Sequence to fold (90 residues):
Amino acid sequence: MKILCVCGMGFGSSLMLKMTVEKVIQKKGLNAEAEATDIGTASGTQADLILTNNEFASQLEGGPAPVKAVMNMASEVEVEKAIGEFLDSK
Fold:
């Protein structure tokens, strides 16, 4: 599973979110990888799930991958919930 972590420029909050996602992936033992990217690149990048903030979530919805908004990029609980909801929907 590929999880895109998206922010405006691809190297600020998306990197923080990527580190949080990697902690959750490791803790849960998921076969997944996380990648940080900017919003422009995200719409053309193949992924299973996109995690981002509320602002960018609305811009990315309707694309090829499901989008989940995360309020606190450093919250393992919130990221784990978003990934769990995605996995439950499959």
Remarks:
- The mean pLDDT is 94.
- The two ends are 12 Å apart (CA to CA).
- DSSP finds four helices and four strands in the chain.
- Strands lie at 2-7, 33-38, 49-52, 67-69.
